Amino acid sequence: MRLADHLLLLLVGLLAFSHDGQGHADEHQQEDPGTGESSPSLEVAPSNTDFALRFYHLVASQSPKSNIFFSPLSISAAYAMLSLGARSDTGTQILESLGFNLTEVSESAIHQGFQHLLSTLSIPDDKLETRVGSALFLCQNLHLLPRFLNDTLGFYGSKVFPVDCLDLEGTAQLINNHVKEETRGKIDDLVSRLSRDVVMVLVNYIYFKGLWEKPFSRSKDYTEDFYVDEKTVVKVPMMYQDKHHHWYLHDRFVPCSVLRMDYKGNARALFILPDKGKVEQVEEVLTPEMIARWNNVLQKSSFYRKLKLYFPKFSISGSYDLEEILPKLGIRDLFSGSADLSGITTQGSLRVSNSFHKAILEVDEAGTQAAASTTLTTAFLSVPRDRYLLRFNRPFFVVILSTDTQSILFLGKVVNPKKL
Prior knowledge:
By secondary structure, the chain is of the alpha+beta class. It is built from 9 helices and 18 strands. Strands 2, 8, 9, 10, 11, 15, 17 and 18 form an 8-stranded antiparallel beta sheet that branches. Strands 4-3-5-1-14-13 form a 6-stranded mixed beta sheet, with helices on both faces. The chain has a 4-stranded mixed beta sheet with strand order 6-7-12-16, with no helix packed on it. Helix 1 (41-62) crosses helix 4. It is globular, with a radius of gyration of 21 Å. The protein starts with 6 loop residues before the first strand and ends in a 6-residue tail after the last strand.
């Protein structure tokens, strides 16, 4: 698969529900997206960031030498939407595990925040394309409660598709066709087969396509070594530019350099390059506060300098079975016989039988970015020791943010750019 002058970020999350033997949100109100200091999306941004880093560290602890890439926003939005139909401890576990303190923020405010966030990201932009959405695929004999249907549509824009669950192959194909269409053909085989006890499938997707504000020249590509670890070296296509200014720094106390690259449009990426042999030390301090600190500092003119930049052209992906990961973050009842999803239907009990998340990152010369900004200090930062050269030829971290919503859209670690 060849990219043409762009970077694509694709995320698909899949939840399958099966039969297994009150806390309503307030009425939703449609509103025009906005990005002021009182925007509802800013109410959920800190919790989304907290969830993103907790999820990252759990996955990293399980696979320390592997590529990591996922969309915390897609996971959070899918499960926040599901909480509309969860009751008692099941609903509380979902929202608290997503990082929300329910004594400080109401369920209504959470869903209005996601509504505003998703609406803002979906505003048409000729410079940056972001497609976010959800879909419910329902067995024809499953009747959802009107409140759940209305709230999932009003807050999350979810589409509903009735399916014949006796036709497992046809249902899988319908889901795959929908995902393929919404992700511009980049993911065309999400579901291979469905279990016979599945009665509902929830699909959440994010498609992101953007162009670098300062693209690389296609005439300056060449092959270079990428040092995966002390024993492993792979050859990668390396992009190069030396005529542009960028925001970048070297942290005096955290052994890494941080590069900010902007998209055309309201987005930004932070690429965090640990010093040689310091990946674990940098990973340990990847917190919401540290990312906010770097992001804020890299808006100051003193860190805007002309740079010789070497950056790999690559594709990586991440696939995660969330029913194995999320219970370790506190969502326990949902995947068991204790699940209370009685806000979805009164036709017997439901539980989540499978929950799957897949994300793909592809980077080439024209690239892409996303961003957020905060208020931080510069006391412990400096320009790189070699202020003119930055070479991404060893493992690094990537954080892609939305400037409008101050939310992390994608988060990952590139250990080996040759492993998809």
